[in-house]
Amino acid sequence: MIETIFFDLDGVIIDSEPVHAKAKKFTLDLFAINYPVSIFDDFIGQPDEAFFKHVSEELDAQKRPAELFLKEKQRLFVEILPEMKLIDGFFPFFQEVKKIGIKTALVSSTSTYTFGLIDENFNIAHLFDLLITEKDTINHKPHPDPYIKALQTLPASTESTIVIEDSPNGIISAKLAGCKVFALTTSFKTEKLAEADVIFDSYAEISKRLGLNN
């Protein structure tokens, strides 16, 4: 019996990774930093602070502070935010979930600043019974702390909770917290999501699995 569903944000509710990656690319290009093409995929599901810490320490010959890059990325992100879209099928699925009384939480490692921008555009914060963002835990995904915090705060039981994730780091975080994980192939191919309990290509498939279409 599912009583609670925890949703990741990026790649689960909003198709934000292309916009984040574009803003990061523009930032690195602006500062004339050479980078491997894989760098954006390597950091999917991790906070921007981790990305630019890596850039500062490993890629920037001048060792400029990560905060400098982060500030520019945030400026560019605001400019191209209107390009972002919701993940197909999220709202119909969410409405069905709420209709039958399942509690929901958004559990993300995104910053308060970034989530504020996203919420201004999509107005989603009020939909959830609980919001967990970067400010709520010291350790972020793949650490289990965000999901442990959500379980304790709501509160919710691991036996009656599923987590919807889209990235390896998110899956690791949820599994370490003791949760069952449904993975969406919105950001990674199936083989990268192998640690999830079940892998789906769409919300329609999740709805069918949970019997919401009956």
Structure description:
- 43% of the residues lie in helices and 14% in strands.
- With 214 residues, it is of the alpha/beta class.
- The protein has 2 domains: 4-15 and 84-210, HAD superfamily/HAD-like (Rossmann fold, 3-Layer(aba) Sandwich), CATH 3.40.50; 17-82.
- The chain has a 6-stranded parallel β-sheet, with helices on both faces. It has a two-stranded antiparallel sheet with strand order 2-3.
- Helix 1 crosses helix 4 (66-80) and helix 3 (48-59) crosses helix 4.
- The protein is globular.
Task: Detail the poorly predicted runs.
Answer: none
Instruction: Report the end-to-end length measured between terminal Cα atoms.
Output: 16 Å
Q: In percent, how helical is the residue content? A: 40-55%
- Please give the domain count: 2
If you compute it from the alpha carbons, what radius of gyration comes out, rounded to the nearest whole angstrom? 17 Å
CATH architecture of the largest domain: 3-Layer(aba) Sandwich
Number of strands: 8
Which structural category fits the helices and strands? Answer: alpha/beta
Strand-residue proportion: 5-15%
**What is the assigned CATH homologous superfamily of the largest domain?**
HAD superfamily/HAD-like
Reported by name, the CATH topology of the largest domain is Rossmann fold
Largest sheet: 6 strands, parallel
Side by side, the strands of the main sheet go 5-4-1-6-7-8
Order of helices and strands: EEHHHHEHEHEHEHEEH
Oligomer: single chain
Just give the CATH class of the largest domain.
Alpha Beta
What is the residue-averaged pLDDT? 95
**What's the number of helices?**
9
Principal-axis shape: globular
